[in-house]
Write a structure and sequence with these properties.
CATH architecture: 3-Layer(aba) Sandwich
Distance between the termini: 60 Å
CATH class: Alpha Beta
CATH topology: Rossmann fold
Number of domains: 1
Order of helices and strands: EEEHEEHEEHHEHEEEHH
Structural class: alpha/beta
Number of helices: 7
Largest sheet: 6 strands, mixed
Strand order of the largest sheet: 7-8-9-5-10-11
């Protein structure tokens, strides 16, 4: 296994997914979508942290497209769920996964899940549909036993996090903070830490400065030149949030063109 060093801390990597490589030699038209996206156009290889890797960037930069391609290349359903889910309500994902090669460690994940905030409703619907079929134990029991549609978006996500995520797994999450209040995002950090302690690996696309504060995580920020690994304090998300909270009146004067 690989060894990683973070300052005084050193440990053996126990992750499942080591890196993703974009196979440019197989791409016939590099001027077509999604190869023109900022996150894709300069991508050669993306290495993952054994615990947590964040992808951050502006809307439209392509982070969701990239994380979707990684998830599909791993074997997850494009709309979300585990590897056992095989449904399609709307064909909106790109073909990027066809050109992604994943390097896996010798360790095998016993669990895994791909969460897309925008299509989690579809996953909940598929669970109810499958549970209407006779002969198998209810799938919803693995999610806490209560219909995900009968809960708020945040409650249903936490039912997933608390019940369905069992550890020893690879969890790929696309903007999980969409359903969560700030306090719930902090609770998510606690649950993530429990799962990481139970040999889990996370790859997360996010806008949340709360989530990306997880210690020792690798943060890749998408800019005009592609992906750059940056420190937490150097992310645009942290800096913009800090500046606003430290000087709300001044920032509002600027944003609203108010004269004092």
């Amino acid at each position: 296994m690989n060894r990683y060093d973070f300052g005084m801390k050193s440990f053996e990597a126990e992750h499942y997914l080591l890196r993703a490589e974009l196979l440019w030699d197989r791409i016939e038209d590099r001027s077509a979508f999604p190869f023109t996206l900022p996150v894709v156009s300069r991508l050669k290889e993306l290495e993952f942290h054994p615990n947590v890797t964040f992808l951050v960037g502006e809307n439209g930069s392509g982070k969701s497209t990239l994380i979707e391609a990684i998830a599909v290349a791993w074997g997850f359903n494009a709309e979300g769920g585990s590897k056992n889910f095989n449904f399609k309500t709307h064909s909106s994902h790109s073909d990027l996964h066809k050109y992604v090669r994943l390097s896996k460690s010798v360790r095998r994940a016993k669990d895994g899940f791909f969460l897309r905030a925008e299509s989690y409703f579809n996953v909940a619907t598929e669970i109810e549909k499958l549970d209407e079929e006779p002969g198998s134990p209810p799938i919803i029991d693995s999610y806490g036993g209560l219909s995900l549609h009968s809960q708020s978006h945040g409650e249903s996500f936490f039912a997933l996090l608390e019940n369905r995520f069992r550890g020893n797994g690879l969890y790929i999450l696309d903007e999980p903070e969409a359903a969560l209040s700030p306090s719930r995002q902090m609770s998510m950090l606690t649950r993530m830490h429990d799962l990481i302690s139970d040999k889990s690996q996370f790859i997360i696309a996010t806008h949340s400065p709360i989530l990306m504060a997880y210690p020792d995580a690798w943060i890749y920020q998408i800019g005009p030149k592609g992906l750059d690994r940056v420190l937490y304090e150097d992310t645009e998300h942290y800096q913009v949030t800090r500046d606003f909270l430290n000087r709300p009146e001044i920032m509002l004067d600027i944003l609203l063109d108010r004269k004092r």
